[in-house]
Automatic annotation (TrEMBL), chain A:
Family annotation (PROSITE patterns): G_FEOB (PS51711)
Organism of origin: Rhodocytophaga aerolata
Gene it is expressed from: feoB
Transmembrane feature ranges: 287-308, 343-367, 387-409, 421-447, 459-485, 519-538, 653-675, 687-707
Protein name in the entry: Ferrous iron transport protein B
Keywords, alphabetical: Cell membrane, GTP-binding, Ion transport, Iron, Iron transport, Membrane, Nucleotide-binding, Transmembrane, Transmembrane helix, Transport
Methyltransferase keyword on record: no
Family affiliation: Belongs to the TRAFAC class TrmE-Era-EngA-EngB-Septin-like GTPase superfamily. FeoB GTPase (TC 9.A.8) family.
Pfam families xrefs: FeoB_C, FeoB_N, Gate
TrEMBL record, chain B:
Presence of keyword Nucleus: no
Full protein name: FeoA family protein
Source organism phylogeny: Bacteria, Pseudomonadati, Bacteroidota, Cytophagia, Cytophagales
Keyword Ribonucleoprotein attached: no
Provenance organism: Rhodocytophaga aerolata
Coiled coil: none
Amino acid sequence: MKTYAKIALVGNPNSGKSSLFNQLTGLNQKVGNFPGVTVDKKTGICPITPTTSVQIIDLPGTYSLYPKSLDERVVMDIMANPKDKSYPDMVVVVVDAASLKRNLLLFTEIRDLGLPVILALNMLDVAKDSGINIDKSLLQKKLQVPVVAINARTGEGIADLKNTIAQHIPATKEVTNGKVHSFIDASIFAPEVVGQIKDVFGVHNDYLAIQYAHQAESLPFLSLSEKEQIEQLRQKYNFKHSLLQAKETIARYERIDELIGQAIREEQKEEKEDLSTKIDKVLLHPFWGYVVFFTVLLLMFQAIFAWASYPQDLIDGGIAALNEYLQSVLPESMLVSLLTDGLIAGIGGILIFVPQIAILFAFIAILEESGYMARVVVLMDKWMRKFGLNGKSVVPLMSGMACAVPAIMATRNIDNWKDRLITIMVTPLMSCSARIPIYTILIALVVPDTTVAGFLNLQGIALMAMYLLGFLAAIFSALLMKVILKAKGRSFLIMEVPVYKMPRWGNVGITIIEKVKAFVLEAGKIIIAISIVLWVMASYGPSDKMERAEAEIKTEKPYLTEEALANEVASRKLEYSYAGHFGKWMEPVIKPLGYDWKIGIALLTSFAAREVFVGTLSTIYSVGSDTEDTETIKERMLKETHADTGLPVYTPALAFSLLIFYAFAMQCMSTLAIVHRETKGWKWPMIQLFYMTALAYVSAFVVYNLLK
Amino acid sequence: MAHPQKSIADMSIGEKGVICCFQDEDMSLKLLEMGCLPGTEVKMSNKTPFGGPVCIKVSGYALSLRKDEAATIMIR
Ligand SMILES: Nc1nc2c(ncn2[C@@H]2O[C@H](COP(=O)(O)OP(=O)(O)OP(=O)(O)O)[C@@H](O)[C@H]2O)c(=O)[nH]1
Ligand SMILES: [Mg+2]
């Protein structure tokens, strides 16, 4: 296998590392205008000259090498360990030119570790807008590293950066042994400790040695006895961690001031507030701030319901027409029936939700790209803390409305373990996009499509109410956990609030396409498998009972017309099939919630992934009826009646019971898997599974019996 | 300059001050990294209701912090 030179992108949060990564590698790493978007390392290949390529490593942002949260730790773990498989041959430090001094702190730390460094000066456009001019060549002279001006958003200067990397990349993995000029002399803070660690551990670099002393407990590559050894050294020489860290930081800032004071020129356009400050006067206003936030949410739900319905009707009708066409041109056979009743019915149950999911992802992408998300964190922190959460929990909770899996990953940015755990546990209660199909269909069945207060669509309001319900369940569950769990450590908010930026529409578009594609493919894969299995199970039965169905009905109800007879026979056959047996078998459990055995089958299939519910129902009803003209999913559901009473199945009581069940139930294998990974064990995902299932069952029971 | 009784949490919107010292060691480490150094000028830009987080302008960027965190940064 070819080995590439490794180039790590390091920098403060939100300085543009992932944007640069995407420019260099052509990949599509997530970018967003708030700190803490990237929470794990990601690699890609970049050709820097026609003949050579390098490996680029995108890393989470951090303000220094002293990590406060899990995502920041990734950087230190790699930089402190030359044996790490991601240990870079060279580091590109990406800095936000608009707050250069603060960004250079990390730069000096990386440099003092003895790593070859290039400084990528990013966001010069933002700096210029706020009247900051930077003398690039003076900066380069003072810092003694190559400095390249780039714009990671537009791609300016990327070619220049590639050339610079190509020129400076070390041919061999030379360890620079502290020979490079260092910004501050780390050994003066604790000469004995540094000296001893260098001797004992074979560390050559002073700064790395003092970092061993600072962070021994959390460095994963040190053994227990090594950690103890360091602890003894610290005791012996009275190593004061906090004091020394503070001294070091101050010393670094003094050094930075000395070096670059002349390279930065700030126009004194005093008192002229920048645009972001002006916008924040409203968006962070103690009253209007909240009004705007709720308006944004309201608009989002209206959009999902009202705007999406047009393309949705088209897709639904189109699929019905396709089915009809296929049935009319293809000869009647088992295979055609599998195709139309099984596959197309099932896939249709997914495709019709594409418009809504696209709108939802568009909204979330815009919130993240504009910088508004960080404001929501600020607005909500106080309220979230009352419930055992944290302002930063807002990001996972909001992105949990799209999908819980990346949302749970995003919790790595929360520094306090208890806050983070609670956020992980309650995020799946937020209504994700996979619930949209169930919500939409059921709301459309039982909530009238009328307009209230002039412009609000009642169905849109019902949808918003479902999301609100999920949110309330999430925060009250959080409160419960807050009371049960013992508090551990303190939490900080201290967070940079980025300047507003116009979302890059191209990027928003790509995000939507990718997410929709993933949704359709993921759900599609499952639905195809399930449709086939389900169709087989619904078309065949354990004994010859199915064949006798027709004779049975004829004797039971001899008065039926031909069409009614065919329908009854199809439905009786389904009852006698394997799927029917299965559904009947679980009917006693779900009967109290108002569900019959057909819904039972759909419940069962949606335990792996809830988005297949509607598709499953669609397949079941399609097999279980014998209509010539194929109908849309909604029509099929409306027509469904109880075999014994002849009354419609989808009464408001049943629909609301199902809605509640799906709002609360944990029906997603991927979420359980990610919770397992993030909490390192099965304890929490299992608690989550049982808690959510019980909550869903009990609430659905209560709702059904109240409305019945 | 012997008035370190006032903290950032006591500032009103639009008011300016200069950081003089910190009252909480853990917090100060994080704040120092973020460019809140003694001698730096800060300006209060936003407050959220009921004692929620505040936003300040420091070293040329906007920083938000909880009110109790802001109360550990003394100004003169
Ligand atoms: N105006 C301007 N915006 C930029 C520039 N580079 C990046 N951005 C924007 O800055 C924001 C942050 O970019 P990211 O690439 O996500 O930053 P990051 O460093 O990966 O952030 P974290 O993963 O949170 O550490 C995005 O909204 C980008 O579009 C630039 O040179 N100029
Ligand atoms: Mg990133």
